[in-house]
Amino acid sequence: MAIKSPPNPAPILTSLQPAKGKLTSQLKQKLGFGLLTAVSTFTVLPIIALGIFILVQGIPSISWEFITGYPREGMRAGGILPAIVGTFYLTLGTAIFSVPPGIAAAIYLSEYAAENRFTRLIRIAMINLSGIPSVVYGLFGLGLFVLFLQFGSSILAASLTLSIMTLPVIISATEEALRSVPQSFRVVSISLGASRWQTIWRIVLPQSLPGIITGVILGLERAAGETAPILFTGAAFFLPRLPTSPMDETMALPYHLFVISTQVPGMPVQIQYGTVLVLLVFVLGMNLTATVIRSRARARRQW
Amino acid sequence: MVNIVMEKIVIDNLSIQYSDGVESLQGINLKIPANAVTVLFGPAGGGKSTLLRTINRLNDLADVAKCQGRVLIDGENILEPDTDVINLRRKVGMVFSRPVPLPLSISKNISYALEVAGERNKARLEEKVERALRQVALWDEVYDRLNDPAIALSGGQQQRLCLARVMALEPEIILLDEPTSALDPISTAKIETLLKELSASITIILAPHNTQQAARMADYAAFLLQGELIEFGKGQDLFLNPTDKRTADYVRGRFG
């Protein structure tokens, strides 16, 4: 059934029609939204442009040899395998040293610790730690791990340095994931005769696991892309072999990139773009994994 | 024993104050008979929830600043610091105002309490799950989807599941804090019938969500007003011939 409009609009409606030559509120709203859309497009554009540019410039230099080969001719030819493997080892090492204590600390803060001066101090420390420039972590790692603990410039020292930098990220992400689990689950579980730990282990942790994994990956992703913290603690300028122990130095993608862009004269630009592309794929791959885990968990979540 | 009825719980001069200064209970003295439905009723803020949560020490989770007096279950003061609270909570089950199924399957929701108590035997767990579900008349509705998430059940079914979850531990006492406040009348009637049946062998303490339910359910009733126990007696006596004017006014709907 079609609704017919009256032949003549009721006179009262005329007062709602826009006065000529004036900005009506509707028009203002349209203008405002248009402006916001334009601004957000402009902020995203450089990122997209950067991605496309690197992709276009970098793809020609990607080859089997580039991924699996060793650098030759003073890094001006050959592959970047030692850097790829090195970054993988450093990320793995960082995960080993930062994930278990990070999650443990978050469980303590979120589930056990009372809100008091001590926990407030921990939180303030965490916020400030994440604001420290990464080169300071590098110098700290040099002082503590390389020199004082005599690990030397090594994967071990570099991983530990990166772990300290990553810890605050992992702790706060995990804490947030734990806190997002409804309090009522905890109360019910306790009321059924479960201990606090059983409640955490059987209910709270499984429910917050996707959030924890996401936070962990994002923290590690940052560690994987950092140059400054590993500069003095474990990164090698050039190493024509793979590291064989945690006490070895290693090449790493971000540092390698720094080296070939600034320290080696006559460096072919394709190799630089190729290296950037590999690093980006590595880091964005981790990011994508985190996103997939998060959205899957959200779809499955029951509360 | 002077009384004919056996007392399951004796509350002796219990006062509780929260750390925000709210005095929730003031010198409560109450003897709760075994194997009957005792109703705690009164307007909001009267201390019903606090009293319930003290009986299974769930109030340990809250910010209690001061807790004085004794709560004796079978003669034993459960407010002692060395009370085994986990064992206590297995003996004293609790159903909350909103059904909160744990984020697990239907059967896991019920076996959860048994599993955390250390039961590993699968056959025994299955048997207890079935028995608990039959006790709350839920078995016929869910027997073919025990592994589905419990959240898929309707509100009324969820609340019966929560009751079954408590029943699986074979408790001596069940505390219910407005268990039907989120349910439709049919589901409410089912729960009420169940509670009446269960009260033959279990001590039930119920904070009803309205006075009508209080009147329907009460074998015994206690009227709580602003943290004080105004009157306690047999359900009929209290609702038909209240002795205290405040009880009478509340029961007749003059305030609340």
Helical content band of chain B: 25-40%
- Give the SSE string of chain B: EEEHEEHEHHHHEHEHEEHH
CATH topology of the domain at 7-101 and 173-251 in chain B: Rossmann fold
Strand residues, percent of chain B: 25-35%
Order of strands in the sheet with most strands of chain A: 1-2
CATH architecture of the domain at 7-101 and 173-251 in chain B: 3-Layer(aba) Sandwich
Measured as a percent range, the helix fraction of chain A is over 70%
CATH class of the domain at 7-101 and 173-251 in chain B reads Alpha Beta
The chain pair forming the largest interface, with residue counts per chain, is: A-B, 19 and 24 residues
Reported for the largest beta sheet of chain A, the result is: 2 strands, antiparallel
Protein structure class of chain B: alpha/beta
Q: Please, how many helices of chain A?
A: 12
What's the total number of strands of chain A? 2
Overall body shape of chain A: globular
- How far from one another are the termini of chain B? 38 Å
Query: Could you tell me the number of beta strands of chain B?
Result: 10
Architecture overview:
The complex is a heterodimer of chains A (303) and B (256). Chain A is an all-alpha fold and 303 residues long. Chain A contains twelve helices and two strands; from the N terminus they run αααββααααααααα. In chain A, strands 1-2 form a two-stranded antiparallel ribbon. Chain A is globular. The model of chain A has no long low-confidence stretch (mean pLDDT 87). By secondary structure, chain B is an alpha/beta fold. Chain B has a domain of 174 residues: Rossmann fold (3-Layer(aba) Sandwich), CATH 3.40.50. In chain B, 36% of the residues lie in helices and 26% in strands. The termini of chain B are far apart. Classes of the chains: A mainly alpha (303), B alpha/beta (256). Chains A and B meet through helix 8 and helix 9 of A and helix 2, helix 3 and helix 6 of B.
